[in-house]
Amino acid sequence: MAGDTITSLSKRTYQVVVSATRSMGIGKDGKLPWSLSSDVKFFHEITTFTSDPDKRNAVIMSRNSWEALALDQWNCPLPGRLNLVLTRSVSSSIGTSKDVVVCGSMDSALELLATSPYCLSIEKVFVAGGDEILREALSAPGCNAIHITEIETNIECDTFMPPIDPTVFRPWYSSFPLVENNIKYSFVTYVRMRSSAMEALALNNGTTFDSSSPDNLKFGEKFSFLPEMIINRHEEYMYLKLVQDIISNGNHKDDKTGILTLSKFGCQMRFNLRKSFPLLTTQKVFWGDVSEELFRFINGSRNAKLVDVIEKVKNKPDDGRIVLSAWSPSDLKLMGLPPCQTFAQFYVANGELSCQMYQHSADMTLGVPLTIASYAALTCMVAHVCGLAPGDFFHVIGDARVCKFHISPLQEQLKRLPRHFPILKINPEKKDIGSFVVTDFKLMDYDPHQKIEMEMAV
């Protein structure tokens, strides 16, 4: 993956790596008030790995952070990385080493890294704290991404970082919740979408904003600056890898229309609905098609079954039979084409609602992207009216198929780098599942690649 860029002011851009509680606490009594081996491993991997074996990364930190690393018995200096320690002290006791550089400020460190030999030998720049440096780093336009271990367990802190501005940064990746030492946490990466909150305000107010200015460029085309380990964790790769597996290893079959297909049996994808909404980005999915399918489902003949699901979610959340069936066995012979989505099961835990949907057969090219989005939206809607947060959406497919005449356009799609998923906002005033209209949903920051024309199988 590409390294960090050098701005017109001859400063390196950078990415922040930090652990913080929900209240943005990052320390207590000069130390990290939690111990997570997976967090330490993540910090090591993300700040050490380079795509070019002849380069290394740089880590910028305050003098207090440097001393805290030594107290916590970290390898100090951090091995395999250039350590830049910020201090205004004239007489520094940090010591001298080819792996340590002392700078007086963030600006001087970033300017130094933009000059030779560092501009040639340093691939990426990371900022690791402390609180004053994080405050400066997060408010500056040079911050491309934030990799944060979000601590969900309440832990007392006396040192804090500023909150992440949701009008400037959007989630790129969020791990599923993890637990270690009775501490619940998750790894989340946010990417810069706009140069400042001013641009977001202008866009929300419908006014013109000069996005062509070098200081106001959107970062939609520049996500290759992310570490490869983060790019590969994007959830869209579950879909892309399944498509590639079907093309490479699928069984040859004829479908009901006589069209030759490649097929794999027994597939599953899992999407995290906590931070973003899984509308695929490597091929444009039209939100109008998603909402049309969703409202047809809600307002159709199965609506009485959906009301029963909502009743159980609200009043019997531990019931193992919160199932929404699209099939009525007695009516199958009367149906010209039974629905491919056989049934969905809902699950309540930890204040969250998750859904697992079983689909007996699926067209991976055109049908599955719509189905992922429509059932993810349904899960968010049911969670909303039941006073819960959305959790996970599991998509289980029996017979996952790719039509052979779709292979060529799919191979073009497989070359594309996924972009950030959008965010789905639901009208907070609506609490009745039957009262929703299309305007009650707002899809924010959907920035997909251009549409690839694909013929529909009939």
UniProtKB/TrEMBL annotation:
Keywords: Methyltransferase, NADP, One-carbon metabolism, Oxidoreductase, Transferase. The active site is at 340. The keyword Acetylation does not apply. One of its GO terms (biological process) is one-carbon metabolic process. Transmembrane segments: none annotated. GO terms for molecular function: dihydrofolate reductase activity; thymidylate synthase activity. The keyword Methyltransferase applies. Residues 13-192 form the DHFR domain. Pfam families: DHFR_1, Thymidylat_synt. Bifunctional enzyme. Involved in de novo dTMP biosynthesis. Key enzyme in folate metabolism. Can play two different roles depending on the source of dihydrofolate: de novo synthesis of tetrahydrofolate or recycling of the dihydrofolate released as one of the end products of the TS catalyzed reaction. Catalyzes an essential reaction for de novo glycine and purine synthesis, DNA precursor synthesis, and for the conversion of dUMP to dTMP. This is DHFR domain-containing protein.
